[in-house]
């Protein structure tokens, strides 16, 4: 059974802010740490990302409709600077699935798979780095399902995080794709 087609486009911080505001303030997005954000806070945050040379935000579409947020960043300069020893080809990632009243079984796993495919579509990407909150057990399970291997806990200014890595080979093995 196919879940549908996933695509991404660059996020427009002003046009997409209202939609993003609904997503990031939803109770299911607690680990996004924007529960009390006002619309202007969301606009400001994504304008900051849009202006950043090493951080990019994308709106993920499912069959042409907005369904998830994806952020890609260079961990040498953003999020993890000074917290681990980056390797050439490391790419940092965040993703958020839009809240829904009609969840589809397997949808979130399909989204993270699409995000990983998008990141590894760049031949320069050798490994994806994530740093979710240590308490976010649901995302740890999703990460492991697509090939991430936890390395260690780290302290970031806003949270205690689980630093995890996924190489192209680990992702392909998790998907059952032979190299």
From TrEMBL:
User: Which pathway is this protein engaged in?
Assistant: Siderophore biosynthesis; mycobactin biosynthesis
Q: Which InterPro entries does the record match to this protein?
A: Acyl_CoA_acyltransferase, Acyltransferase_MbtK/IucB-like, GNAT_dom
- Which keywords does this Swiss-Prot/TrEMBL entry list? Acyltransferase, Antibiotic resistance, Transferase
Could you tell me which SMART domains the record lists for this protein? AlcB (SM01006)
Ranges for domain N-acetyltransferase come to 6-169
Task: Indicate yes or no for the key word Acyltransferase.
Answer: yes
Q: Which GO MF terms are attached to this record?
A: acyltransferase activity
Pfam families to which the protein is assigned, alphabetical? Acetyltransf_8
- PROSITE patterns per UniProt: GNAT (PS51186)
- Source organism, top-level taxon: Bacteria
State what this protein does. Acyltransferase required for the direct transfer of medium- to long-chain fatty acyl moieties from a carrier protein (MbtL) on to the epsilon-amino group of lysine residue in the mycobactin core.
**The protein's name:** Lysine N-acyltransferase MbtK
Q: What is the species of this protein?
A: Streptomyces marokkonensis
């Amino acid at each position: 059974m196919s879940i549908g087609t996933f695509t991404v486009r660059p996020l427009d911080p002003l046009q997409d802010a209202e939609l993003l505001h609904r997503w990031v303030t939803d109770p299911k997005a607690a680990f996004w740490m924007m529960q009390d954000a006002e619309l202007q806070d969301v606009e400001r945050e994504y304008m900051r990302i849009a202006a950043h040379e090493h951080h990019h935000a994308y709106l993920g579409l499912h069959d042409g409709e907005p369904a998830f947020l994806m952020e890609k960043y260079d961990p040498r300069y953003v999020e993890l600077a000074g917290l681990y020893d980056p390797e050439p080809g490391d790419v940092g990632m965040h993703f958020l699935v839009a809240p829904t009243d009609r969840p589809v079984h397997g949808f979130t796993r399909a989204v993270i798979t699409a995000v990983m495919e998008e990141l590894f579509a760049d031949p320069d990407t050798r490994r994806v780095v994530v740093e979710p909150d240590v308490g976010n057990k649901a995302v740890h399970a999703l990460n492991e399902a697509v090939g991430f291997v936890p390395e260690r806990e780290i302290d970031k200014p806003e949270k205690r995080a689980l630093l995890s890595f996924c190489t192209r080979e680990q992702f392909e093995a998790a998907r059952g794709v032979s190299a």
